[in-house]
User: What shape does this take?
Amino acid sequence: MIALTPDLTFTGGRGLVQDAGRVGDWMQTYSGRRFYPLDPRAADVDIIDIAMALGNMSRYGGHCRFYSVAEHSVMVSHAVPAELALEGLLHDATEAYITDLIRPLKRALGPANDYFKIDTNIRLAIAERFGLAPTEPALVKQADVAVLGAEKAVLHPRSDPWELPFPDPGLKIRCLLPPASQKYFLARYAVLTSEDLAGLLDRVNAMLDYDEIALRAHQGIR
Assistant: This one.
């Protein structure tokens, strides 16, 4: 039972043990790692965590049929020059750790907001881990906006027209559900990095099997 004080302040918790020398609290990632959003380090970044989290997140704050950030990221990776494809694939990778904010809220907060400072620091850790530029290249930003053209047609057919500054690159939106979009993301990553896709998927499948065992045990299913 959750312990509440008379003023209804939550006093429970996970009994967190902070690692020596780290700043702030840590979040639990899908792979079981500890990630410190206020103290991000390249060694704590895992492509599996990024793929699994982005594959579970729908774009547009959920105001569309399910379309994952992972699939969107693959689209952007195809909309940029080949030498920027990995930058395109990982342009939203920080969202795996701090989720995303809808565009109107981002604009209202302004770039000096703490959210963006945290986002920038996580971006630097991800850039170090995967050998990316410390700041997102302009062509990736343009591709990110250009892909909105395809997304508008599929995800928001009932809305007013969007005035977009860049032409639709003509990519096909698939609206893959989480398991498929996660593997779609990892397959693109493997192509771009020459990492062993089979090994990546073996890790994912082992985690999914473990999750299923835990769920069945919780439900009392043998």
